[in-house]
Amino acid sequence: MLKNSKAFSGFSANDIPKSKEFYARALGLEVSESHGILTLHLAGGNNVIIYPKPNHVPATFTVLNFPVEDLDLAVDELTKRGVQFEHYDLPDIKTDEKGIRRGVNGPTVAWFKDPAGNILSVIEEAGAI
Question: How much is the pTM?
Fold first, then answer.
């Protein structure tokens, strides 16, 4: 029944104008807004919506992954645009000074948060699913 449905994903934010600014300017994505709901227009024709939720609680997991060919370059460019990468020193997740976990126990990846606190990542394309 749903095999041919053009499914899309979504998550919440507590400040849509702030989120729109972040996704459009800092990340350089094409973003549209209708009835207070943002649509992120991603490569390949995929869309993700961000809907307002006054009592929003950030996800404790990665809600959106961006595969890239050169992770170091992506991290450097996003850092220049004001994106702050997360740093972890946990038993199963350790990042370097740039905030990159380098291919140990999984793909090479760097995590960051949007203005609503949702966790996003840039992930090396070879390690992406």
Answer: 0.91
